[in-house]
Design brief:
This protein is an alpha/beta fold. The protein is about 40% helix and about 15% strand. The protein has an eight-stranded mixed beta sheet with strand order 3-2-1-4-5-6-7-8, with helices on both faces. Helix 1 packs across helix 9.
Length: about 300
């Protein structure tokens, strides 16, 4: 069903050959946007385009490994050459190289940061340059993660990249405001290749994929965990005219839950004339600024 707030727009969705990215591309196309589907896998990209076109949408494939400037510029150029302009840049492409800190190699770290953090930077930079030159405003939608908001065991590289993306969103929202470009992050909680590895989720995802068994309310409502399609509506909203006043935000979605993540801020403050020697910090810490330390990590769901 086409949406008045998105019909006729042109979008790039990186990493959209499968999973969350495919759900985003299909939903944008179904709402009336023309979509550049991007993936490193040519077969996946072409299959996604065929599915979108068969459903009455408009899409083309651009195969590229997101990360460097050349790939980002190719994606923007393809949107402009095929559809005349670019209105929406949705960065979703990503990889995982999970290891605990002492086992994580330089390549494990660099590869994940290059695709997630640098790839988001290069794609958004290319898109915003076009949007500013065209003077028509635009929408930037980037992929965050609960790991970037909370940290997650075994994901130094991924959590760092996603936390960096959240920081870039806040910065870009300020820098792009005058040009009418909004910048927001989606924080999804959905059945993906990554979440299949979590023991509490695995049997439910398998039952969904193999037998079509709906995810239980303990997931959909209890912890806000759902399907990729559950996330796509937020992407369409953030791409639409209806979200023109929404920028600089990290918005969570999953299952039946929609949420707004807080930004880091000081939550407890103490003062001492002359500053704070270590001994004085130690003396007051437990009863002053450290009385209620912040929690960290993604809670492990108990679905028994």
């Amino acid at each position: 069903m086409e949406s008045a707030g998105i019909t006729g727009k042109v979008a790039v969705v990186t990493g959209s050959g499968r999973g969350l990215g495919l759900a985003y591309a299909k939903a944008l196309a179904a709402s009336g946007a023309a979509v550049v589907v991007n993936d490193v896998d040519p077969a996946a990209a072409e299959a996604a385009v065929k599915e979108i076109v068969a459903a009455g949408g408009s899409a083309v494939a651009e195969v590229a490994a997101v990360g460097d400037t050349e790939a980002a510029e190719r994606l923007v150029d393809r949107a402009v050459s095929e559809f005349g302009r670019l209105d929406v840049m949705c960065t979703n492409a990503g990889i995982l190289r999970d290891r605990v800190l002492w086992k994580m190699s330089d390549d494990d770290f660099d590869d994940v940061v290059r695709v997630h953090l640098r790839g988001t930077f290069t794609c958004v930079r290319a898109a915003v340059r076009h949007m500013r030159e065209r003077e028509g405003g635009g929408r930037v939608i980037v992929a965050g993660s609960p790991a970037g908001q909370r940290g997650n065991f075994g994901q130094t590289n991924y959590a760092a990249a996603k936390a960096g993306i959240a920081a870039m969103v806040r910065t870009w929202a300020m820098e792009c405001a005058k040009a009418g470009v909004t910048v927001n992050a989606v924080i999804p909680n959905a059945a993906t290749e990554m979440t299949k590895s979590i023991p509490a989720f695995a049997p439910h995802i398998e039952a969904l994929e193999k037998d079509g068994v709906p995810l239980p309310d303990s997931l959909r409502k209890g912890i806000g965990f759902g399907t990729a399609e559950d996330v796509a509506g937020l992407v369409v909203y953030l791409a639409s005219d209806a979200s023109a006043q929404v920028t600089g935000q990290c918005v969570g979605i999953g299952g039946d839950r929609l949420s707004l993540w807080s930004h880091p801020q000081e939550i407890s403050v103490a003062y001492r004339d002359g500053g704070w020697p270590a001994a004085d910090i130690a003396r007051v810490w437990a009863t002053s600024v450290g009385a209620r330390p912040e929690t960290y990590g993604i809670p492990v769901p108990d679905l028994d």
